[in-house]
Amino acid sequence: MEAPTRVECEAYNAALDFAPGTVALTWWYLPVQRAHLATMLSPAFPYRIAGMVHVENLLVAHAPLPAGPLRLSTRIDILPPSASGAVLCRLETSVSADGTPLLTCSSTYLAQRGTGGRRSAAALPQPGAEIGRWQLAASAGRDYARVSGDWNPIHLAGWSARLMGLRAPIIHGMHTLGRACALLQARAGRPVTALSVRFRAPVALGSAVVLAEGAAPGEFMVLADGALAAEGHAAFAGNPGACR
Hints:
Strand order of the largest sheet: 2-3-4-1-6-9-8-7-5
Oligomer: single chain
Number of helices: 5
Strand content: 25-35%
Distance between the termini: 30 Å
CATH topology: Thiol Ester Dehydrase, Chain A
């Protein structure tokens, strides 16, 4: 694929509140997601894309984005079923240019739900200091879809979400991570170069979202209307700490 144009990068930056003139780490998920979809649409993939749930993601930048064509390579691993029968699949994508590694992305999806009983709710970790907050508009899913190309009906409107079995539309998980990434690097004054996240619960359109510090340096939590929606870890340029 070709490297993104300035117009494409600035549209993403404006939508997620990144500073202009940068290529955000979370922008990389846009071409990576297209590679994932192509992989999962293969006849050899044994699960239906509809209903798959994005549960974890890891992005690690290795070099700046160059001009010219990029090469994306994806492999998929289907993990052994859990005791309840739940099945996770993990897609590992590497991006390079002229043989130089630029980025790696690992995305984990719930492909098949388990049949066990409902687990007891875990205690909510105590959030640290607030880093920032935002209010999701009713149009946020459609706005992000225009930038990302992800027009999954669960993100667009109430009627389309209900057709897919949801009570209400939810925002894309990578929109949440992108907004968090923008706030994290604005506060640090340095680019985020590695970012891991575990999505804990969907975030409905219209929610009030808060980004807070986690228990350890680099850790963060995202709360939507007071409930834990995601937690993760960020590393910054000049910081050797690895994401967990």
